[in-house]
Amino acid sequence: MQDTLSYRLIDHAKVPSCAKEFLLYCDMEYERRANSGDAFDEALFRNAVDLALRKLCNTPDRSAL
User: Fold this and answer.
1) How many CA atoms lie within 13 A of 37 on its CB side?
2) Domain residue ranges in the chain
3) pLDDT tens across 18-41, in order?
């Protein structure tokens, strides 16, 4: 999947290899939810992905990604 989505969580080039597959999944899930027509809390989704990435990669803050 290209990382030219209108919504990008973070720069894919800066994502450690441990999280690349997860980030691609998140991009696809975002698109699916945003286009489903159902209620979708984008801020909550972003916060959840950010937390998961920090835990997955053991980084103290988002700036490390």
Assistant:
1) 0
2) 12-64
3) 788 888 898 899 999 999 999 999
Residue type, 42: E
Rounded to two decimals, the pTM is 0.64
The answer to whether 26 and 10 have CB atoms below 8 angstroms apart is no
Q: How many residues does the chain have?
A: 65
**CA 54 to CA 64: how far, in whole Å?**
9
> CA 65, 22, 64: angle at the middle one, nearest 5?
10
Q: Which two tokens stand for residue 42?
A: 């984008």
Q: Are 29 and 7 in contact (CB under 8 A)?
A: no
